Model the fold of this input.
Amino acid sequence: MERSEALHHALERILGMHGDDTLPSSRVERIIVRPEWNVVIAENGLCGMVINFYGKYSIDPEKAPQIEELSSLVGLPLSKVAEMHLDSGDENLRSISVCSLSALSQPFLGDTSLLSRGHNLSKDVVDLIRPTDIVAIVGYGGIVDSLKPLCSELHVTEMRPRHFIHNIVLDGSVRYCPDDVIFHSQDENEDVLSSSDVVLMTASTLVNGTFDKLLDYGKDARVRGIYGPSGSLLPDALFELGIDTMWVCEMADPAAFARDALYSQSLESSIKRNQRIKWVRRA
Done:
């Protein structure tokens, strides 16, 4: 993978925010590899979760977790783990670095901290959408349904084949449903994003190495945003690169989240119970 300037900028800004405090030296206590998610648990209640491309998001179903390499990270400082695999050609190792960045960002994701730095908070992104907007979403997710009635056109680009995410309807003809979204392959990213008013990217783009390029494709959009739990990084860093709004998850109960990461069947349900989800907008 190419070097991600966005992730290196985020690392520099996050460590700069910590200044002389010792939290970046917090040791990684546990790494949990779940289907779909990697979880990093560190000292001082610092933890993060990021997509790992196993399970239903798998790009290579035959690939197994790198147990030996991941085991070697336990006991290292979070800042070291965050830096080690930022430029890895392996998405799942890079996921651990992004996960560590997320954990290091947690002290700065509380409402008071965000507001004190001049950011705006919202429960949703919908009020940024105008009825005449052409909206492009990179990565099919739950956000699609809420945006359908709000814009003139809704486009979705995806790395996965369409049958991974849509229903196939056989009723004398063969069609995909829902059919009120314009679906594109990843090969059309540049054309779609460069002609859209609003561009919202799944945070998994930070992990798979496409974020920097996609951000540039959408440079003429009125609004550029990022959504999903994998994007719970220091907003200041991504705003400085041109992001206008982002969805972040603040760990409200790190201990409960750590238990759920071990035992819960659905980590998504743990997000609702143990994290505060918010949209952050730059001033």
